[in-house]
Amino acid sequence: MNIKPGTIFSVNVSTDEKIFGRVLFNVDEYLEKSKNESNQNYFDVYDKCVLIETFGKVTKEFDETLLKNVAVKSSFIPMDTFSDEDEWELTDLNLAVSTEYLTFPEVLRFVNGKIYFCVGEVTIATSFDVAFRDQCGVYPSFGSGYWEVVATLDFVERKDLIEDEDDVMDKYFKDSDLRENPKARQEIYQAIGENPNLSYNELALKHGFDLKRFYS
Fold it and tell me: HEC profile for 133-199?
């Protein structure tokens, strides 16, 4: 399945209502272009996935004003999620993704006895131990797309469309993204000597990775 970055998709949430989103990054399409040759390549975990965002409105039709109101900023889901055409549907619309706009989930990985801070192509060794990683509880992982839908419906205060009310929570991606754990994130950034306010693009360029080559 070849899904281009920028592709707009929809998810049916009722008989006549949808949420919309956009594909930001296709891991399979660009994994070969990664200059990170180390064995802790961040993207390996997300093989056959796409990075998506969702927009904060339940509606019947797409319009570009939706891009101004993002519900889920960036989360990985399997490409085969779109095989369920009764619920998830790729449209013919494509709105370009700016490299300055793109972000990735931030995680900790344990490789060869070390804990690494990883985001996109950036991999930085830390002095933390496994106990700290387990305390943070953030691991490279992805779901089926279900939580992205639930998080979006919660964001737009349409809990009536959520299948199970027990699924509503404060932090939907706390186990897969350090950005949902600001305290631990601040501690990690301080320890590795990086600025947590840098955009991903700025951080990647600092470490020698130019995101623009992915979109040429």
Answer: HHHHCCCCCCCCCHHHHHHHHHHCCCHHHCCCHHHCCCCCCCCCCHHHCHHHHHHHHHHHCCCCCCC
59 close to 89: Cβ distance less than 8 angstroms: no
Q: What confidence score (pLDDT) does residue 38 get?
A: 53
Rounded Cα distance between 178 and 107, Å, is 6
Burial label, 204 (beta-carbon count in 10 A; 0-12, 13-18, 19+): buried
d(CA 187, CA 184): 5
User: How far apart, in whole angstroms, are the C-alpha atoms of residue 122 and residue 43?
Assistant: 10
Question: Helix, strand, or coil here: 202?
Answer: helix
Residue 39 confidence (pLDDT): 44
Task: Express each pLDDT in 22-33 by its tens digit.
Answer: 999 999 887 766
> Per-residue pLDDT for 191 more than 90?
yes
**Per-residue pLDDT, 32:** 67
d(Cα 103, Cα 119) in Å, to the nearest integer?
9
Mean pLDDT of 184-196: 97
Beta bridge partners of 50: 26, 77
pLDDT at residue 134 is higher than 60: yes
Q: Which long-range contacts (CB under 8 A, 24 or more apart) does 27-36 make?
A: 27/51, 27/76, 28/79, 29/2, 29/4, 29/5, 30/214, 33/213, 33/214, 34/121, 35/121, 35/208, 35/209, 36/121, 36/123, 36/209
d(CA 65, CA 202): 27
